[in-house]
Amino acid sequence: MTTGRKTISIVTPCFNEEASVGECVETIAQIFRNELPGYDLEHIFCDNCSTDRTVAILKELAATNKSIKIIVNSRNFGILNNTYNGVLNATGDAVLLFLPVDLQDPPELIPEFVRHWEQGYEIVYGLRAEREEGVLIRTARKMYYRLLSNLTYVDYPPDAGDFQLVDRKVHQAMKQIDDARPFMRLMTFESGFRSIGVKYRWRARKHGKSRNRLSHMFEQGLNGITSFSGAPIRTALLAGFVISALSIAYSIAIVVLALLGRIESPAGIPTLIAALFFFGGVQIFLFGVLGEYIYAIYNQVRRKPLVVERERINFMDK
C-alpha cells in the first residue's frame, strides 16, 4: 500500500565507529523530524566487519526504529565496495549516495539537496569548496581531482565527491553498470541527467582518525583514473611510438657515423647500442598496443561480488 509520501534513502558506511554512529542516527532523525517531515527515511548502514561495538549499537537502535537498516559484511571489503553495495540496496525515490558516519559532509545540507531535487534536478552534488585538513593532503586532493576531471571522458566537476543526492532514474542507471570496482562519484555524471552543485565546507573528524589509510586512498584514486580514462595507456602508446621513432633515427645516425669513421669504439658496440634502443622502444610501443586491448577486456570481464554479507537487519524479504 502506498502512502503517497516520498522516501529518501541515505547510505552510511562504517567501520569501527562506535563513538560516532549514535550521533549520526540522531542527527539525521532530527533533520527529518524538523525540516523534512513530509518524507519517509530509509537510513542504510553498511558495516565493514567492525571489531568494536558499532554493530551492537546499530542493532539496539534498529530494534525500535525500522527506518534504520543494517548490512554487515563478512570482512572488510573496502569503503568503495561497501558503500556501493548499500546504494544498490536502497529503495528510495531519491538516494543520498554517501553520508559519512562522522558527519564530515554536513547533513544539514540534505534539506537543500531535497529542494533542488524537487525542482527537477536529478543529481544534486556537494562541492567541497573548503576543507578542514592539512595543507599537504588538501593540495594533493585538489591536484588529483583536477587531473581526474581533465583526463576522464565524463564531464566531472573537480571538487565533487560521493556526497550526492540522486533521483531514482539515476539510481537505476547506476545499477545497470556491472562494475566490480565502482567509482560512484563519476558513475552518476556518466549517466547524464540534470545536475546542480552546492558548495560547502568539509569538516574535520570529531572522533578518532580516519580509517581510510593512505594506501587505500591511492588505490581509490588510481581506480578512478583507470575506470574512466584511457589516458595512461594512450600516453604509454604515444611514448612508445616517439621512442621508437627516435631510436630508428639514432640507429641510422650511429651506423652512418661508424661507416664514415667518425666514431672510435670497439667493433659491434654502436650496433649493439642502436639495437638496444630500437628494441626497447618497440617493446614499449607494443606494450601500449596490448594495454589498449587489456584495458578493454578488463572493463568487460570484471565479475565478482562487491561484498559478502554476514547478515541484514530490517530489510524486508521480497
Please outline the helices and strands.
Elements: E1 6-14, H1 21-34, E2 39-47, H2 54-64, E3 68-73, H3 79-88, E4 94-96, H4 110-118, E5 123-131, H5 135-151, E6 160-167, H6 168-175, H7 184-190, E7 195-202, H8 214-228, H9 231-259, H10 269-301, E8 309-313
Parallel strand pairs: 1-2, 1-4, 2-3, 5-7
Antiparallel strand pairs: 3-8, 4-6, 5-6
Class per helix and strand makeup:
alpha/beta
Mean pLDDT: 81
Order of helices and strands: EHEHEHEHEHEHHEHHHE
Largest sheet: 8 strands, mixed
End-to-end CA span: 15 Å
Spatial strand arrangement across the major sheet: 7-5-6-4-1-2-3-8
Contiguous helical run count = 10
- Annotation, overall tally of beta strands: 8
**Dominant shape:** elongated
What's the alpha carbon Rg, rounded to whole Å?
26 Å
Q: Note poorly predicted spans.
A: none
Strand portion? 15-25%
Measured as a percent range, the helix fraction is: 40-55%
What distinguishing features does this structure have?
318 residues, alpha/beta, 18% strand, 8 strands, single chain, 48% helix, 8-stranded mixed β-sheet
Report on the structure:
The chain is an alpha/beta fold. Helix content is 48%, strand content 18%. The protein has helices at residues 21-34, 54-64, 79-88, 110-118, 135-151, 168-175, 184-190, 214-228, 231-259, 269-301; strands at residues 6-14, 39-47, 68-73, 94-96, 123-131, 160-167, 195-202, 309-313. It has an 8-stranded mixed β-sheet with strand order 7-5-6-4-1-2-3-8, with helices on both faces. The model has no long low-confidence stretch (mean pLDDT 81).
